[in-house]
Amino acid sequence: MKLVTVVLRSSGRPQLRDALQSLCQQDHTLLEVLVVDVTGDTHPALPDLPWRAGHSARMIGSDRPLSRPQAANVGLAAASGEWLCFLDEDDHYDADFVSSMLRHARQQPGRLLLYGHSREQAGDGSTKHVAALPFNRALMASRPLCHWSAALINRRVIALGCRFDERLAVCEDQDFLAQIAQHGDFALVPVTAFNHRAASDTAETGDDPASRDGLRLSCETLLQARWAGSSLHHTLRAAAGSQSGVAAYFRHDFAGARAAFSAALQEYPDDPNALHGLGRLDFEAQQLERARRQVERAIEINPDAAEFRLTLAQILAATDATESARAEAMQAARDPLLREAALALLSRLPSREAPVTATQQPARLSPCSCGSGRRYKDCHGKIGSLTSESEAPRPIDANATVIQQAGAAMQAGEATRAITLLSAVSVSNVIDATLAIDAGSLLLAAGDANAASPWFARALQLDADGPARALLRQCCERQYASIYADSVYREAAHLCRRLQPDTASRPQRSGDAIHIVTDFAGVGGSERHAMNLQRILAPHLPVRLWSTTPVHVAWSDCGITLIDSAAGNFPRDGTLVLIGQFVALGDWFGQARFHRLVIRNNIDQPQMLLQRLVEVELYNRRLTVQFTYPSAQFRERVGLPGAVEYSLTDLDRFHPAVRTRRTLRTGFTVGRHSRDHYTKHHPNDPSFFRAVARAGHRVRLMGASVIASALQHDSSDIRDRIEVVPAGAEPAADFLASLDCFIYRAHPYWYETGGNVIAEAMAMAIPVIVVGEVMGIAALIEHGVNGFCVATEEEALAKLTRLADDEMLRARIGRAARTRMEQLAAEQDDAVVAFYTDRPRTVSTSMPLTAS
Question: How far apart are CA 121 and CA 3, in angstroms?
Answer without folding.
Answer: 29
